[in-house]
Design brief:
Structural class: mainly alpha
Strand content: 5-15%
Distance between the termini: 32 Å
Number of helices: 4
Shape: rod-shaped
Length: 88
């Protein structure tokens, strides 16, 4: 699941939950919209930071079929990224 799919799923689930909360009178529609927007923004930002950490970037590059080998100075990244990534 990529970042766009995750954001769409989260937004839909929050809108559903917000609709229920508005229907039951727990909150008003404007509050539901504001809360949904804030949660989606925070979640997408957190996911983006997580997905762009060094290890994840190296893992993504190693998954490309045209990449034969990646050399790194970090043993941690090499161990976490698979057989195409070596310490050099």
């Amino acid at each position: 699941m990529n970042q766009e799919q995750l954001a769409a799923l989260l937004r839909t689930l929050l809108q559903f939950g917000g609709g229920i909360a508005v229907g039951r009178g727990w909150i008003d529609a404007d509050t539901a919209t504001a809360v949904t927007g804030a949660i989606v923004t925070i979640a997408v930002t957190a996911w983006g930071l997580y997905a762009r950490r060094n290890t994840a970037l190296v893992q993504s590059a190693a998954a490309v079929p045209q990449v034969a080998q990646i050399v790194t100075t970090s043993t941690h990244i090499a161990e976490a990224s698979g057989p195409k990534v070596v310490t050099g």
